[in-house]
Structures are given as C-alpha cells and as structure tokens.
Hints:
The complex is a heterodimer of chains A (about 140) and B (about 400). With about 140 residues, chain A is of the alpha+beta class. Chain A has a single domain (about 5-140), classed as Sufe protein. Chain: A. Chain A is built from six helices and three strands. In chain A, strands 1-2-3 form a three-stranded antiparallel beta sheet. The longest helix of chain A has 21 residues, at about 100-120. The two termini of chain A are about 15 Å apart. With about 400 residues, chain B is of the alpha/beta class. Chain B has two domains: about 5-15 and about 260-385, Alpha-Beta Complex (Aspartate Aminotransferase, domain 1), CATH 3.90.1150.10; about 20-255, Aspartate Aminotransferase, domain 2. Helices cover about 40% and strands about 15% of the residues of chain B. Chain B has helices spanning about 20-25, 40-60, 75-85, 105-115, 135-140, 165-170, 190-195, 245-280, 310-320, 340, 345-350, 365-385; strands spanning about 5, 70, 95-100, 120-125, 145-150, 175-180, 200-205, 215-220, 285-290, 300-305, 320, 355. In chain B, strands 2-8-7-6-5-3-4 form a seven-stranded mixed beta sheet, sandwiched between helices. In chain B, strands 9-10-12 form a three-stranded antiparallel beta sheet. In chain B, strands 1-11 form a two-stranded parallel sheet. The interface of A and B includes residues 1, 33, 37 and 61 of A. Bound molecules: pyridoxal-5'-phosphate (PLP). Pyridoxal-5'-phosphate binds next to helix 3 of chain B.
Amino acid sequence: MEYSNKVMDHFANPRNVGELEDANAVGQVGNLKCGDIMKIYMKIEDDIIKDISFKTFGCGAAIATSSMATEMVKGKTIQEALKLTNSAVVEALEGLPPAKVHCSVLAEEAIKAALADYYKGKGIDPTPIIGCTGDCAHCHGEHH
Amino acid sequence: MDKRFVYADNAATTPVAAEVLSKMLPYFTGEFGNPSAGFYSLGQRAKAAIEEARQQVANVIGAEAKEIIFTGSGTEADNMALRGFMHSKQAKGRRRLITSAIEHHAILHTADALKEEGFNVVVLPVDNYGVVKLDALENAINEDTALVSIMTANNEIGTVQPLREIADICHKKGVFFHTDAVQAFGHIPINVKELGIDMLSLSGHKINAPKGVGALYVRSGIALQSYITGGGQEKGRRSGTENVAGIVALGEAARLKGENMEREMAYVGSLSKRLQEKVLERIPQCALTGHPENRLPGNSSFVFAAIEGETLIMDLNLAGICAATGSACSTASLDPSHVLMSIGLSHERAHGSLRLTLDVMNTEDDVDYIVENLEKILERRRKMSPVWEE
Ligand SMILES: Cc1ncc(COP(=O)(O)O)c(C=O)c1O
C-alpha cells in the first residue's frame, strides 16, 4: 500500500491520541468484524471543541485519518466541525489509496457520532441536525 | 539494539544466492546460445546446462530428470498441473478435481476457472491447525474423480500436510495426486517416489534463485495436455525458448538447498523457535497460528489481540523489518485471508495476523531485534486501540 508522506507522518506520529478525562462528547463508529473502530472524545465548551482525542483500531490509513480529522476540528465550532467531509480529510492527507477511502468516511462519521453524543447529553435529538451518524452495522464495501 | 534492516518475509521471496548468480551470469552473455541450436557447440552447451539443471532439481525430490518440466513460475506449474491434467486423456473423462481451502490462489483460481468450464470442484476443509481433513478427502473421492491437489506446506501459516497419508488415500482410490510444493521445495525433505506424488510444483524464487522460473515434476507415464504450444521445447510439454540463465540458477539453487538441507533446517528451525518462544513469552494476548510442530522451519505466524495487521507491518517497516500480514486491510477485499478464515479464526482475530518467515540469511540478532521492536510497537499501538483490554 503506497501512502503519501502526510499519511505516513500522521501514522507514525498521530496527534491527539488517547482518552480525554473530562470529555463531554464521545462517539464510536465501525466494528471489529470489519477491522476498523474509531472512538472520538471531545471537550466542548460554548459550542467550541476545546479539546479532542481519539483511539483507533484499524490499518495505517484509519490511524492517519483519525489523527488528521481531530486536528481539523480542534478549536472549531460545532457548526464548522459538522461541515467536515471525508474528502477534505483525504485532501489534507495528500490523498489515500482508493481501497482506503472508507477510512476517511469513518473519520467523518466518528466526528459526527461524538457531536451527536454531545447533543444527546443535552437532551437534544441530534438526528435533524446531524443525520445518520454512520455505524450502520455493515462493512465498508460500498465506500471502495 | 541499533537500527538494522531485517528481512523476515522469505515466504514472499528470497534473494538470489551469490553462488547461484555467478553460475547463471555467463548464460546472459558469452553462453547465450539457444538450446535448440544443436548444430554448434554454443547451442549444445546451453542445452547441456539445462539438462544439468534438470538433474539437479530432480535429485532434490528423488525424481528422474526427464520428469521435470521447466516453467515460468510456480503459478504456471500449478496451472499446468491442474488444467493439463483435467484436460488430458489421463483424466479418462472424469470431471472431479479435489483441492483444499487453504491452497494458494494459483491453485484456487485455477480450480475456479476449471469449474467455469464445467468441471466439478470440491474444496476440502482443514482443521484448526490447517491440516486437511483426511476423512473428508476419503469421502470426496468418487468414481468421477480425476485429481487431488493439496499443497505440501502452507505459505501463510506454515503447516505441512501429511503427504504420505494423502497420497495413499488417492492411490487406494485410483486417483492422481498433485502437490504445490512451492513453499516446501528445498526447505524440507520431499521424496516423490517414497511419498507417491504424481505431480509437484516448485518455484525458484523461494530458494534463492531468481523470480520467473519454476518447474513441474510429472511422474513418467503421465501425459498432460500442453497448453503452451509452439517450437516443442521441454519435449513439447511447454514450448518457448528456454530461460536458460533462470533454469541454470534454479538447478544450482536446488543443488545447494539439497546439499545443505539438514543443516539449514536445524539452523532456521532454531531461529524460529527462539522467535516464537520470545514472542509468546513477552507479548500478552497473542497466539501462534498453524501447526505447533508440523510446520515449515522458517515460518512463525501469529495473531495479536486488539491490533490490526497492517499497522504492525507499517511500524515494523519503520523499524527496518520486512514482514507480512493476512489482515483484510492488506488485501484488496474486505475479508482477511482465506487461510486464516479456513482455520476457524474469527474476523476479529484474523485482523491481527503477522507472518515472520526466516531463512538462512537471518541471525539470532535479527530475531532479538524483531522481538524487541514488536514488543514496543504492540505496547504503543495497543494503547491507541479502543478495543484493548489488559
Ligand atoms: C504455495 C504457493 N504456491 C504458488 C506460489 C506461486 O509461485 P510463483 O510466485 O513462482 O508464481 C507461491 C508463491 O507465493 C506459493 O507460496
């Protein structure tokens, strides 16, 4: 698998790794059978993502996309974070091999899942705001 | 330990040995004759070189030189055996081909193609160690069965099959037996006459000869349908001007492997044992895959919990170590390797697979360097994994 230098950098030295002790938004997508799970922790204050971290089980691209996606929404407002698309993550990573594009989809879904969790925590139904937060039990075939 | 380069993917391919290279080089330049040009000595010498190589290959498996057909790869030898036999008169119109679930794709995809043509293909299951179920084999052989093809040793998990028992069952039932010995040839003793093997595939690049040369042993008396037709080389069984240098290299590599086999098996086996013991002792939540004893001397294959194989390979590469995995992320499909699935591993377990294949070039320091790095990598990456539980 040929990865860009950016992917290799985020794989070798992932940013924002681990759990956030005081997270008030946590989202997890993917499943073990498919071989990728991403879990995102956020600390949100005044609608701003003050801090963020992740834990990922998956291939090199899964780790790199998690790292990049967390970098891209850190310090952003919820509204800005909701606009993050998988293709923006791919672009920021200077491309992904076609078979790995699903990892970027998972990263986008993981961010949305964490934000949905934040709304749920506040008693707000996230579905009208966020829509499907992925984690639809099937594997990532259709993203190939 | 200082950073080093460790090649631990010898099941994928091996480097050309110095002796092999020096023996083959003249056939590119001074000794460039066409073996079919028998009227002058340049051509005669090329022909003689091929015949010497044929004898050298035959010697390693207890065959006769005339029973060896040189091919362009192990894959071609597999294709030749399966297609050539099923389409031959020898098959007597019988339509069933029996193979196993853990074969290399050179066999499985060829069997698929034969199935498309209307042949009846039965794929036998294996046990948790990857050993073909002999009762299933016995039950699968019917009146319509022409050929059984079961690999000598598996490329992913290293399991060696009980060839003699398999051959005995085949012959008792009057069917022919082919084995893909690409991983085993030159690494473990195989005697086709003693074992009762009718056809055997082998490849140069797994034994320190170059890529792109292989051979098929075909027991004398068996006439395969030729499917590369032309100038009638290899007694009409495989036309095309011979890859003289490659064939010379294969012969020389086979000779060296045959002569040094006992010593190399002991050495490589001890390296693998050291590796397996250290990994299993130092790294929590991991297991050896494949048969605990009946396995290739150089193969150590593992599964690690809570980590994905590609991550391991990439981190090992950053540490200068070449290794392989059968995880889904390493394959083009969504599924982990068919071999890992066939031995009953769950998707979850199979995602964390790692194959380290050692050979004569490796040292104890290589092993220790691998273990040291593997330990570090797993500790670091498992901390990043949402599914890791101590
Ligand atoms: C068991 C087995 N069969 C066949 C092959 C194919 O051999 P070649 O690479 O020479 O085509 C390989 C090589 O990976 C193998 O391991």
